[in-house]
Amino acid sequence: MSDPTLNAHQQVFRLSLFANIVREIKGDLDSIQIELENRLPVAVNQVPGWKVVWGPVAWKHKPDDTKTGADHVSFVARHPNLVYSNGEEKETYVFAVAGSVSEYNWVINNARVDSVVDLHKWLEKGITTAPKRDLSPSLGNAYISYGTAVGVYRLATAVPPKTSGSPGVELASYWAGFPESPNTRVIFAGHSLGAALTSTLALSLLESRAFAKFPASNILVYPSAGPAVGNITFARLFAKKFPKIAGPRYEVWNCMIVNRLDPVSQAWCNLKLISPEQNLDNIPTLYGEPIKEIVSGVNMGKVLAALSTVTYMPIQAVRFHGDPPATSPSTQKEFFDIVWYQHLEEYLKFIGIDAPESQLLVKDAGVGKMSNEEVTSCEPVIAELFVLPKTQEGAVDAAEDYKSLQALSVDVDK
Q1: Which residues belong to any copy of the Fungal lipase-type domain (predicted)?
Q2: 100-153, pLDDT tens digit by residue?
């Protein structure tokens, strides 16, 4: 049975955070994978009824590097009869992905908004084919940032090791191996970079017919604190394939959960006109008067986004207003300290769960621990806030007809 103390949304959100259970650990890939396999089942067991059935999988672009953490972590957990808010009980699978955990995530997944990939041209060649940048984007096509496409590709080609659940089976093949499953739900969930990747991966798999054994309405997403990673055509396609399922406050499906005071959710739209509530220009004044270094970092982000020649548009969202700081920051470090609280703690408060218990780190050979600054500085946008760019703002022509998409997003009282 489901945990009576947590509703379905709270359980899914908690599972999404468990994907970050080794985010502070650095070591070679084998050491991190061992630690992940030891820690994750213990964490998942904190939420009754759930069991890891695929993975967990850690991936590193430099598997022998002992000075960095995992670049991607993902897993699938199953509940035989999750109880939903309407009283339904359904077999449910949650695919969860970690947020930013390494410099690779920053350099590749987060910062590579300077170029884009045509979603459908890529998927026509197969989601397990490495994406290629489109140097001449066309109006009307759905585009995602190159960094997001690379991240989705890495997740789609990840293979659980023989010590993990469903060893040797890629994600699309895992879902394709199911029998006809008219009453089974699959939910994609992640926080921060995990939100960007899971929502895009869910749409990519749906468009690739990987879920042919499932009703399309039974494929859901529950992302939180993620940046915009696609143009308006992508955002419209997402809204069509994943129509918003409304509910009170955070009890919605197929919407990004957004704290209006979280700068990560303000990326990567660089035009306030088309997305007034979520755009890069909002960041410098989130907590008070703008700070020079923060303005410079945001300007760098705007240049990166402009180089793509598309305008990034947030997907439909439910927005809440986190508690503002008691004192406005006057330095870059003070701003940074507030950011981390707004980027995680306020979401925990809004959704109404405690932070997941973290297991004690066993100091195995080859395994170390990242500092808080190492962890947080890899988050989307936050990395730019610690760089003093020597660039000038780019300009992008505003596109039309964004209001209908913005109408899908709502603000709620905290």
Answers
A1: 180-266
A2: 554 544 444 445 899 999 999 999 999 999 999 999 999 899 999 999 999 999
Give the model's pLDDT for residue 26: 86
Q: What is the mean pLDDT of the chain?
A: 87
The span from the CA of 35 to the CA of 63, in Å, is: 15
Amino acid code (one letter) for 396: V
Write out the DSSP string of 190-208: EETHHHHHHHHHHHHHHHT
Please report, for the domain that includes residue 399, its CATH number.
Answer: 3.40.50.1820
Burial of 391 (0-12, 13-18, 19+ CB in 10 A): exposed
In a domain, 1, yes or no: no
The region, left, alpha or beta by phi > 0 then psi within -120 to 50, assigned to residue 223 is beta
Q: What's the token pair of residue 366? A: 């080859």
Q: Give per-residue pLDDT as tens, 147-165.
A: 999 999 999 999 999 999 9
- pLDDT tens, 311-332? 999 999 999 999 999 999 999 8
The crossing angle, in degrees rounded to 10, of helices 193-207 and 146-157 is 70
CA–CA distance from 227 to each of 199, 237, 359, 403 (Å)? 11, 17, 29, 19
Look at residue 401 in the predicted model and tell me its pLDDT. 42
DSSP 242-310: S--B--STT--BSSEEEETT-GGGG-S---TTT-TTSSGGGGGGSSSS--HHHHHHHHHHHHHHHHTSS
Amino acid occupying residue 50: W
C-alpha angle 44/127/77, rounded to 5°? Answer: 10
Domain that holds residue 59: 8-411
Whether residue 273 lies inside any domain: the answer is: yes
- The answer to whether residue 386 is domain-embedded is yes
337 secondary structure, DSSP code: H
Task: End-to-end CA distance of the chain: give it in Å, rounded.
Answer: 29
